[in-house]
Fold this protein.
Amino acid sequence: MKQIFLIGDSIREGYCEKVKEALRDRAEVIYPGENCRTSQYIVMRMLPWSELCRKEDVAVVHVNCGQWDAGHMNGTPEPLTSLTEYRKNLHSIIWELEKFFPQAQIILATTTPMNPAHPETINPRTTGEIVEYNRILKEVAREKNLPVNDLFEESQDWGEEFYLDYCHMTEEGYSRLAKKVTRAVSAYL
């Protein structure tokens, strides 16, 4: 059975089990047992995470990151990862994925927006900042000729009823994201 490798932050943690269930008869869905946090953390942890998979059987790798990168940790004036660093890290992630999974289709997913009703958090970021990180991701995807799964577009008009807090979704929100991810990865099985 082909494998699908899902990499991502807590947004991925919210939809991964639903994707796994939806594809149980078509593919084995694999993902790290931890929050993949920032783009730099993904670069650092790719080797041990890649060992979760049978490299020759991985048909699709779906990556989303950006929430942590855009965050102003503990209210710092600058985001954790600058846009320049984010671009560099995305290139490194793609390089690693192509090395570890040369037969796999890589899909880059945009980052979801912030809850419009909760603009203040301990690690604040705005939907406007998320848009800029997504712009960089789309530019890198174009450069590398990779598909983009636009999770931002899917969820940009959602009201606060789809959020648990400042950025995490309710079960309904994660179900909707899972359907979008399932459709995106299924196209390459």
